[in-house]
Amino acid sequence: MTVTAVIGSQWGDEGKGKAVDFLAERMDYVARFNGGNNAGHTVINEFGTFKIHLVPSGIFAKNTTGLIGGGVVIDPAVLIDEIEMLNKAGIGVDGRLWISPRSHLIMPYHKILDGLYEEAKGAGATGTTRRGIGPVFADKVSYNGIRWTDFASDMFEQRLQMQLELKNKIIIALGGEALKYETVRDEYRGYYLKLKPYIKELFSLVQDGLKEGKNFLLEQAMGTFLDTDWGTYPFVTASTTIPSAASAGLGIPPKYITNVIGVTKAYTTRVGAGPLPTEIHDYESEVYKKFGEVAATTGRTRRVGWLDLEIVKTAVQLSGMTEICLTKLDVLSGLKEIQVCVGYKMNGEAVRYADVDAYGLDKVETVHQSMSGWSEDISKARTFEELPVNAQKYVKMIEEAAGVPVKWIGVGPEREATIRR
């Protein structure tokens, strides 16, 4: 029995979807345990190209069962669309995708409030995805949430009526338009009827699986430094993103998590506001154009920067990473020189990530190391030895700095474009 957690070691968008997709083949269960549809994982395999936000990315492995834990907040419309998309593509999920009844629902007022709060903050906006994630987690911890379990009785109607009385006052005060109870009630009743066949208490299933020696793959949403406590607060997400969140969000005791794979992009990207110490501001430069990406969830262009080893090292220590999956090494091909951040300074003194807050991180001086690049196309490489010498040196440099081995190297977006060491 193995329980492996796959986490992002940066600010999300590291390529966790691809990592989970190729690791899932040997797993009995793949599970989401945190976040919501503010996370977008892109999977490219023999079935096509898929952008997934709630269903675990390992669902494409036919013998694998997908679990959505109670720690995940769910936009029912998004989940229904994903299930229909997968079934239409021939990826049958009926009978092998289960949703915890403990999951909280993203309601229409959560999305409205998310947008209104951001607008009210003006220049101080945190750059949320406006998917309602923050407001639904706020309701969860303030006893105002609505869960799937509420639909089994008349609690849904009672709780919805109470919440609309509260939320409409705030929405109107911030310049929005009040929601109608009957409209929301009927819409969500319809969602429940469609998703009811997939809703199942996961506790016994998970515990029995652990006793029977089943293999679990835990799929994190977002990245380490979007964690509510350890990330660049307030420019973070609303949930815990480190592996310990699987204990609360899925019911996996910490002692069972034996492997933690840190998915690390060969450079650094970030969506939205918040510090990015190695950010490249020359938008016309060759490097900026090579690193430029569009986020799967928001469609926003990601901010880009050189690889930040201080961030990676901190993630290794914080999450107990046992190995690294390095992604997008192929994007660096063609660069004559590659910069790597090996540390920070502030007022002439060396500092670590944990020594400063988000606003201090925005002011640190990055210490860079220059490495020679390579010109070869590495997308067809399938062994480490096939990589150019300078690419090999880049990988070994990351291993040495992080203190854990790089076990997988992504050299293209497709599942097969992966070097296994």
Q: In order across it, which strands form the biggest sheet? A: 7-5-2-9-1-10-14-18-19
CATH class term of the largest domain: Alpha Beta
**How many distinct domains?**
3
Shape: globular
List keywords for this structure.
nine-stranded mixed β-sheet; single chain; four-stranded mixed β-sheet; globular; Adenylosuccinate Synthetase, Chain A, domain 1; 20% strand; alpha/beta; Adenylosuccinate Synthetase, Chain A, domain 3; 421 residues
Any overview of this molecule?
By secondary structure, the protein is an alpha/beta fold. It folds into three domains: 3-100 and 199-260, 3-Layer(aba) Sandwich (Adenylosuccinate Synthetase, Chain A, domain 1); 104-195, Adenylosuccinate Synthetase, subunit A, domain 2, CATH 1.10.300.10; 263-420, Adenylosuccinate Synthetase, subunit A, domain 3 (Adenylosuccinate Synthetase, Chain A, domain 3, Alpha-Beta Complex), CATH 3.90.170. The protein is 30% helix and 20% strand. It has helices spanning 16-23, 76-88, 108-121, 133-141, 155-173, 181-195, 203-211, 245-250, 286-291, 309-319, 358-361, 389-402, and strands spanning 3-8, 29-32, 41-45, 48-52, 65-68, 73-74, 97-99, 104-105, 216-219, 259-265, 268-270, 303-305, 307-308, 323-327, 337-346, 349-351, 365-372, 406-410, 418-420. The strands form five sheets. A nine-stranded mixed sheet has the order 7-5-2-9-1-10-14-18-19, with helices on both faces. A hairpin with a 2-residue loop joins β15 and β16 (349-351). The longest helix is centred in the middle third of the chain and has 19 residues, at 155-173.
